Amino acid sequence: MPAKNSLKQYLENGYYHLYNRGVEKRQIFLDKQDYSVFLSYLKEYLTPKDEKSLLNRLANSETSWTEKDKIIKALRLNNFANEFFLLAFCLMPNHFHLLVKQIKPDSIDRFLSSIGTRYTMYFNRKYKRVGPLYQGVYKAVPVYSDEQLLQLSRYIHRQALNLQGETLQAQEVQPSSYGEYLGKRNTEWVKTTEILDFFPKNHPSLSYESFIREANDLSQIGNLLLEE
């Protein structure tokens, strides 16, 4: 029988909770560098690629061969900036959560295949290991209602806060998009508007931060979560 949430039906302009964890529940992020590398891959894949500028630099006779090699690699790298939006995320020691809106119906599969293969290669090279890093195929669960979308964003952000605490310093240790939602960071490839538009800007008691501090209503999203 297929694992829970491993069978995927993708829709254009659909919202999805994507997650996976390490094989045998092992840690997939062992230090700050590991988190930083995974975040750098997210940035590269989700930031719009300025191909015109890259091609101009490649054609410039003053560009060094080392720089040209980097430009060629950047041009070849997959880019998903116009194919789906990352609304929220958190990276935990042995798993990750991504809340996305997909524009094209095959974007998620290609994106997670790209970043999963690339990060596994980095991890195995760094820690001198071989074989799969993740526990099977990633899971993707469609989000059908605004209530599910909001509750899932809270669940994702609370994952990181529950582990490391609510100070900004702790948030930097346990990476998540919560800082973007509080306006403490402005990250181009994290799209907060669709969720923050549900919250009035001039009523602190009704803010997103207040919403996060409330208890999660997991009954709304139980089938969308990482299984034990």
Give the helices and strands, then pairings:
Elements: E1 14-21, H1 32-46, H2 51-59, H3 65-76, E2 84-92, E3 95-102, H4 107-127, E4 139-143, H5 146-164, H6 168-173, H7 178-181, H8 193-196, H9 208-213
Antiparallel strand pairs: 1-3, 1-4, 2-3
What's the quick description here?
The protein has helices spanning about 30-45, 50-60, 65-75, 105-125, 145-165, 170-175, 180, 195, 210-215, and strands at about 15-20, 85-90, 95-100, 140-145.
Using only CA atoms, what is the Rg?
A: 19 Å
Give the strand content: 5-15%
Q: How many domains?
A: 1
The amount of helix comes to: 40-55%
What is the mean predicted local confidence, pLDDT? 83
Number of strands: 4
One letter per element, helices H and strands E, the order comes to EHHHEEHEHHHHH
List the strand order in the largest sheet.
2-3-1-4
Distance linking N and C termini = 17 Å
* General form: globular
Unreliable runs, pLDDT <50, ≥5 residues? Answer: none
What is the overall number of helices? 9
Largest sheet: 4 strands, antiparallel
Structural class: alpha+beta
